[in-house]
């Protein structure tokens, strides 16, 4: 999911890119029935063992996506 996110245009807001990436991943995986399944998997894998207010999952996840892009985005764009 993160790889797809990083390939989407950085001109979009993080929230929009996350949603688009989740839609693309949902469409790519025939065993996944809906977007919510992808969201839950992302949240579980990211926050497993952490206490996160249920209403903040998307914001916290988006913040982590921003951190990943900041850390690796430049390297990835050079390798494409």
From TrEMBL:
Q: What is this protein called?
A: Uncharacterized protein
Recorded superkingdom: Archaea
């Amino acid at each position: 999911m993160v790889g797809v996110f990083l390939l989407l245009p950085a001109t979009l807001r993080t929230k929009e890119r996350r949603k688009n990436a989740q839609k693309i991943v949902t469409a790519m995986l025939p065993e996944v029935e809906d977007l919510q399944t992808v969201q839950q998997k992302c949240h579980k894998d990211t926050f497993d063992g952490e206490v996160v207010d249920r209403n903040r999952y998307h914001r916290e996840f988006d913040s982590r996506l921003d951190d990943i892009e900041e850390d690796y985005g430049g390297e990835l764009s050079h390798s494409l």
